[in-house]
Amino acid sequence: MIPSSSGGVDLNIALSAPRHASFSDFLLRVSGSMGVDVPLNSHTPMVDVLHGTTIVGLQCAGGMVMAGDRRATMGNFIAQRDIEKVFAADSHSVVGIAGTAGLAVELVRLFQVELEHYEKIEGVSLSLDGKANRLATMLRGNLGMAMQGLAVVPLFGGYDLAKEKGRLFSYDVTGGRYEEHDFYAVGSGSTFARGSLKKLFARGASETDAVQAALESLYDAADDDSATGGPDLNRRIFPVVAVASADGVRILDESEVEDQVRRLVERRHVRPDGPFAPNDGGATS
Q1: Catalytic: which of 44, 53, 73, 228?
Q2: Is 30 a member of any domain?
Q3: CA 55 from centroid of its chain's CA atoms
Q4: Rounded to two decimals, what is the model's pTM?
Q5: Per the domain annotation, does 15 fall within a domain?
C-alpha cells in the first residue's frame, strides 16, 4: 500500500477505481495537486527564476506555424541561450511557452501526458477545442502561483481535423481561453512581434511564407526587446519552428531553419528594419 502525500489516499485503490479520462484529475484525486505543490502566500519571498520570452503563431494554407526564440532570462541576466519553448503536444497540436520557464516546461509535459492518457482511455483523440479547454483547466490550477508572480502563459495551436484548418488559442493566467484569428504572439517581445506580423501576415500564405514571416517577427521582437534572443550565427542557435498540418506536427530541422535565418540576416544587411508590407500575398517584397 502506497499512501499519497495528501492524507493517506491508497494508490492501489485509486488505480483500481473507475478509469479517469483526465490524467490531471487523477493526480488531483490522489495527491491533491497536479504535480506542483508549493504553498504560497503573501509572505512567501520571491526568488529569481528563469523566464521564457517570445512565441509567435500564425495560420497558413493547410495548417499553422508556431515559432519561439531561444533565450531565457533571470532578471536582467541572460540565464540560458538555447532553451526550447515550442513543443509538439500530440500528433496534430503544438504548444509554446512564455513566463516562468520551469513551471511552463512541467506544464507542457503534464499536458502531453494528459492528451496521451485521454486517447488511451477513450480510444479516440480529443478534439482541438477539447485540447484547448484541457490546457485552460490546467492553467487555472496554477492560479495561486501565478498571483505570486510565477505565471505561465502558453500559446496553443494545431490542425483541426474536423474543420480541416489550422487554429490558434491564447490564454491568460486565470485560464481564460481565447481563439485568435490569423496570428498572435505571447511573451515579453509579443508587442513587437505582433506589430511585425501585422505587416507581414497574409491570409492563405504558403507554409514557407508563414515560416518566413514568423522568423521575421521574432527578429523584430529581438531588435526591440532585450529579453528576446535573436539568431546567434556564431553559436548556431536558431528559433524552434513547428508546423501543424493534416499530415501531423513537424518540428523543422535546425539546418532548414538555419538556411532561412541566414538569408533573413543577409536581407537585414540591406534593410535593417525588415521587409515592406506585401502587396501580392507574399511574406516579403
Answers
A1: 53
A2: no
A3: 7
A4: 0.83
A5: no
244: enclosing H helix or E strand = strand 240-245
Residue 182 within any structural domain of the chain: yes
How many CB atoms are located within 10 Å of the residue 284 CB? 16
From CA 5, how far away is CA 2, in angstroms rounded? 10
Quick one: three-class SS letters along 1-17?
CCECCCCCCEHHHHHHC
CB 103 within 8 A of CB 85: no
Q: At what angle do helices 207-224 and 254-270 cross, to 10 degrees?
A: 60
Band the pLDDT of 285: cuts 50, 70, 90.
Answer: very low
Alpha-carbon gap, residue 127 to 129, rounded angstroms = 5
Q: Among 19-23, 40-44, 48-52, 185-189, whose mean pLDDT is lowest?
A: 40-44
Residue type, 65: V
- The CATH number of whichever domain residue 74 belongs to comes to 3.60.20.10
Q: Are 161 and 142 in contact (CB under 8 A)?
A: no
Confirm whether 281 is domain-assigned.
no
Rounded to whole angstroms, how far apart are CA atoms 85 and 219?
A: 16
Q: Residue 76 — left, alpha, or beta (φ > 0 → left; ψ -120 to 50 → alpha)?
A: alpha
Is 54 one of the catalytic residues? no
What cell numbers appear for 126 in the block?
Answer: 480529443
- Containing structural domain, residue 219: 51-270
Nearest to 154 by CA among 119, 212, 122, 110: 110
What is the number of domains present in the chain?
1
Q: What are phi and psi of 79, to 5 degrees?
A: -85, -35
